[in-house]
Write a structure and sequence with these properties.
single chain; mainly alpha; two-stranded antiparallel sheet; 6 helices; 2 strands; 46% helix; zinc ion binding
């Protein structure tokens, strides 16, 4: 089968996604639209002050789908001295952990792959001192500022290295 320029050859909903940290004040946290494109100001989440939305629909939809579970964690991160920009990897890790905790690790309907089937390259991460230092820093942030909002969820360092490895090896954006 021959493909032409512009043909869609694969399409799949992302398992998790997040607005990039450097664009957190410029894009809707649900649909990723820019206020320049919509012609409106972004609506700031009153709970965390971090998530922003292009419409009340996006705000309500995101609150229903995922933000309710992460809102207090984002508020803790936003007010705990880590600065106004929450690293994208932390946001994605929170969303991955929420999804894993909920037992919702659906397979992609197109590829049949699941999050568990992704490569983590743990040995490579553990052997790289600068990446390991960053992972340890993110782990300390998550355990001190985020997991207090999830009392039934325990996160050991080994699982976190696997999550970060899968995230770093398989993220697109």
């Amino acid at each position: 089968m021959a493909y032409s320029t512009g043909d869609v050859i694969f399409s799949c909903e992302p398992w998790v996604y997040s607005v990039n940290a450097d664009q957190a004040d410029e894009r809707c946290h649900r649909c990723l639209a820019s206020p320049l494109a919509t012609g409106t100001d972004l609506i700031v989440c009153p709970g965390c002050g971090y998530a922003k939305y292009c419409s009340q629909f996006c705000s309500d939809e995101d609150l229903e789908l995922r933000h309710r579970l992460e809102c207090s964690s984002m508020k803790n991160l936003n007010t705990s001295g880590y600065g106004d920009i929450i690293p994208t990897d932390i946001l994605l890790a929170i969303r991955i952990l929420i999804r894993l905790q909920s037992g919702n690790s659906d397979k992609c309907v197109v590829t049949g792959r699941s999050f568990e089937s992704l490569m983590a390259h743990e040995k490579d991460l553990l052997a790289d001192s600068s990446r390991l230092e960053e992972i340890r820093f993110f782990y300390s942030i998550l355990t001190s500022e985020v997991l207090q909002n999830f009392p039934n969820f325990s996160l050991d360092f080994t699982l976190f290295v696997q999550v970060m490895g899968k995230l770093q090896c398989n993220a697109f954006g």
